[in-house]
Amino acid sequence: MIDNHIIDVRNLSKRYPSGFQALNQVNLQIRRGEIFALLGPNGAGKTTLISIICGLVNVGEGEVLVGGHDVVTQYRQARKQIGLVPQELAIDIFETVWNTMVFSRGVFGKPRDDAHLEDILRALSLWNKRDEKIQSLSGGMKRRVLIAKALAHEPEVLFLDEPTAGVDVELRRDMWRLIEKLRQKGVTIILTTHYIDEAEEIADRVGIINHGEILLIDNKRDLMQKLGRKQLILQLQSAISCLPDELDGFALQLAEDGQTLTYDYDDNQSENHVTEVLAAIHRSGIALRDMQTKQRSLEQIFVSLLEETR
């Protein structure tokens, strides 16, 4: 049977000399060809986990495999499969864009392929900058070079560590377009992000980490179905100043302008009392102008899970 996991993290722990426990018994399996979003607040362990998988930080305890290769004992084979776009600018600013790409591809033992490099540069709107030194580029263009450099050797796994933090809208659009092309080619993509709407938009699965521990891993849709409460939003014909007696006992929230009622409920429970709420509103004489339901967002789920672990 072929192992469908391209990354396999087993019982991984990492404690720094200062005594800080960055990771604690992390187990994580990432499937070939998926887009996996790793979410967590600052200091949660996201960057440490990625750095260990990429061979930039030593393993403390446990085992990490990339494509079946141990990142410690089979470092070269494991690292060859990985492309990394770090948060910080890690690039020779005195070199040209083109030479940076050629050098990066050669480091991983790949034969020269100018057509492939051109495709990457064009996809990231860098082709016209190929002969310029990196120091002369804007911050957004330097970020594009980092992405291009990570893709130069055709990795099977691409790590994006906070890839769109502080970048312009155009770069975000180009990058997500490129990511979709990579997904179609079977590249596995792992991103950490503070823009949870991006994870909600493109990820297949979501992992949430805090205090160095994985709190939850699930398919995005299943996660939102299990933990995503719904809201019943009722727009009133006329504003009211307070809730009538008929609505006592229901957890209804009245907006400050008195024109909107909101009822939170769990759609997975057999009794969510939506029918009773609507009947009580009708008895109270309140006339409705509009009614809609809204699914709780991934960001709200993320925040509530973090609050539960504090």
Helices and strands, with pairings:
Blueprint: E1 5-15, E2 21-31, E3 35-39, H1 46-53, E4 61-66, E5 69-70, H2 75-79, E6 82-85, H3 97-107, H4 114-123, H5 139-151, E7 157-161, H6 169-184, E8 188-192, H7 196-202, E9 205-210, E10 213-219, H8 220-227, E11 230-236, E12 252-254, E13 260-265, H9 274-284, E14 288-295, H10 298-308
Helix pairs in contact: 3-5
Instruction: Flag low-confidence runs.
Output: none
Question: Which of globular, elongated, flat, extended, rod-shaped describes the shape?
Answer: elongated
State the secondary-structure class. alpha/beta
CATH superfamily membership of the domain at 1-81 and 157-162 and 185-224, which one? Answer: P-loop containing nucleotide triphosphate hydrolases
Mean pLDDT: 85
The largest β sheet comes out as:
6 strands, mixed
Tally of extended strands?
14
CATH architecture of the domain at 1-81 and 157-162 and 185-224: 3-Layer(aba) Sandwich
Count up the helices.
Answer: 10
How widely separated are the two ends? 41 Å
Series of secondary-structure elements, N-terminal to C-terminal: EEEHEEHEHHHEHEHEEHEEEHEH
State the share of residues found in helices, binned by percent. 25-40%
CATH topology of the domain at 1-81 and 157-162 and 185-224: Rossmann fold
Taking all Cα atoms into account, the compactness measure Rg is: 24 Å
Q: What would CATH call the class of the domain at 1-81 and 157-162 and 185-224? A: Alpha Beta
Q: What percent of residues are in strands?
A: 25-35%
Strand order of the biggest β-sheet: 6-7-8-3-9-10
